[in-house]
């Protein structure tokens, strides 16, 4: 029996083209999340969304001597331990979870009268890693596409109360999160514990991508919720 080989392979070619287009849409969506879920900057800084370079202005810890006089003699300053991490994650159309993290985080925390009065952290988006070579390459390419705007930070804007020394409490926190040079207030629940020379601060911050000018629907991900999450796990020790 004679088989018409071209007629058999033709549908496969069409399917291949469709799959390729779908994958490219997915790549674009992952890129949007990578650029979104991690850019973060400082309190009370109004930035031009078109600016290539994010101007990070530490609001509390720029000068230690100024901090002590501004916050009172009972204030204790804490610096972040190298074990601190910041991560991002999101589900694309409820099917694929994209995530990445970094431990190259800098920042500081100030305590006064059993309260966290100030807290901020900074990171470079280019240090994010997913643990997967292919996705890491894609992530870095997309971060590079943001120009020189790869610095990110978060600043607490309202003091929060601590529990007894060494105990863990869950409290609402309010701060400023900046993505792509756009600053917005964010709210989250944080777990805090300070005592015995060690402090921890953990939170999951929901991010409305549309408020930062990001639409996954425009990138071929219909039905996506447009929500990403910043997972923060900070470990701090008293400054010398």
The secondary structure category is: alpha+beta
What's the number of structural domains? 1
Mean pLDDT: 70
By CATH reckoning, the class would read Mainly Beta
**Gap between N and C termini, in Å?**
86 Å
What general outline do the C-alpha atoms trace? globular
Low-confidence stretches: 1-71
Arrangement of strands in the largest sheet: 1-4-5-6-8-9-10-11
Helix content: 10-25%
Number of strands: 11
CATH topology: Lipocalin
Secondary-structure element string: HHEEEEEHEEEEEE
The largest sheet is: 8 strands, antiparallel, barrel
**Annotated CATH homologous superfamily:** Lipid/polyisoprenoid-binding, YceI-like
Q: Beta-strand level of the residues, as a percent range?
A: 35-45%
Radius of gyration: 22 Å
The second-level CATH architecture is Beta Barrel
Can you describe this structure in just a few lines?
22% of the residues lie in helices and 39% in strands. By secondary structure, it is of the alpha+beta class. It has one domain (5-238): Lipid/polyisoprenoid-binding, YceI-like (Lipocalin, Beta Barrel).
Structure description:
The chain is α+β, with helices and mostly antiparallel strands. It has one domain (5-238): Lipid/polyisoprenoid-binding, YceI-like (Lipocalin), CATH 2.40.128. It contains three helices and eleven strands. It has an eight-stranded antiparallel β-barrel. Strand 8 and strand 9 form a beta hairpin. Helix 1 crosses helix 3 (133-144). It starts with a helix and ends with a strand.
